[in-house]
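Practice problem 4.
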């Protein structure tokens, strides 16, 4: 009998349930993989913002990593909010030690409400310790700018930033386009070390219920990789997953509400022409 694919998310807890560990585990469940979790920080958070952050000690992160590593056969994992350089080093050490493959790094920096989910001092640690271990890095536009120092204003600066991220050691990158507000579509740019690139484009959905889109997208890629999908197909599924999750809002909370993780399985994207994903080479 084939075993259920097993995945890991190393991320922060969102008490509001829309982002972080909670979004990741819901996404794993919806995509039929088993999810384990290592919590790096507890946030007091809801759809209106983050009111407090309690980072775990490096030792607490270490013990969680050892516990999951000693029991599960992890075929893919993702990192989200890591908060400080001590935690980043602990995570990088474990990825080396356990020889984990299919590592998706979502370089979470700032919450939609403006709270710092990564301390300023830790940006260098992400670049030095984590990017070289990544099969895929999934920055949004502000994160790609922070990692590269390149302002992303057009297609050519986006490509330049992606190339610079690969030069830091990542095997591939997808720069997500949710923050490019001047467009009527949401476009993600994927570049691999062999120079191959793809653009994934969908209609932009007009909604403020976007809390946790980045976490959900990276978790969906991770789930598909755990099942043995190729990276470019895993990204396609993730884009479909987020398109479905954004287009059937739950209308929960008073601020930036959570996306609807259950919408993809309901096959909503396949039913509606407007939710098609186009892929360009
Ligand atoms: N309004 C929107 N309509 C359709 N897709 C969106 C929208 N906003 C974000 N996305 C998609 O959600 C995913 C996360 O993107 P983004 O919002 O840039 O990341 P983050 O949540 O990390 O800031 C990407 O696949 C992006 O294309
Ligand atoms: C614990 C945690 N991790 C990640 C995010 C980013 O999610 P978003 O960019 O959608 O606010 C968040 N708000 N909270």
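Answer key:
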């Amino acid at each position: 009998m084939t075993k259920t694919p097993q995945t890991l998310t190393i991320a922060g807890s969102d008490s509001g349930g829309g982002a972080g560990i909670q979004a990741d585990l819901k996404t794993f469940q919806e995509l039929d993989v088993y999810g384990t979790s290592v919590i790096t920080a507890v946030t007091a958070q809801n759809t209106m913002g983050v009111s407090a952050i309690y980072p775990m000690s490096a030792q607490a992160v270490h013990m969680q990593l050892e516990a999951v590593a000693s029991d599960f056969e992890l075929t893919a994992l993702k990192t989200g909010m890591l908060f400080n350089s001590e935690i980043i080093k602990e995570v990088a050490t474990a990825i080396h030690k356990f020889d984990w493959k299919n590592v998706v790094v979502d370089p979470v920096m700032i919450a939609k409400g403006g709270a710092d989910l990564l301390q300023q001092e830790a940006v260098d640690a992400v670049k030095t310790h984590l990017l070289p271990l990544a099969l895929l890095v999934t920055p949004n536009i502000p994160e790609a700018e922070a990692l590269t120092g390149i302002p992303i204003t057009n297609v050519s600066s986006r490509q330049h930033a992606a190339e610079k991220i690969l030069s830091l050691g990542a095997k591939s990158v997808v720069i997500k386009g949710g923050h490019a507000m001047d467009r009527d579509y949401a476009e993600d740019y994927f570049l691999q070390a062999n120079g191959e690139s793809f653009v994934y484009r969908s209609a932009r959905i007009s909604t403020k219920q976007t809390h946790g889109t980045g976490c959900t997208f990276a978790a969906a890629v991770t789930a598909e990789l755990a099942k043995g999908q190729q990276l470019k197909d895993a990204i396609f599924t993730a884009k479909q997953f987020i398109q479905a999750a954004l287009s059937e809002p739950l209308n929960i909370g008073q601020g930036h509400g959570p996306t609807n993780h259950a919408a993809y399985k309901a096959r909503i994207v396949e039913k509606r022409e407007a939710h098609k994903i186009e892929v360009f080479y």
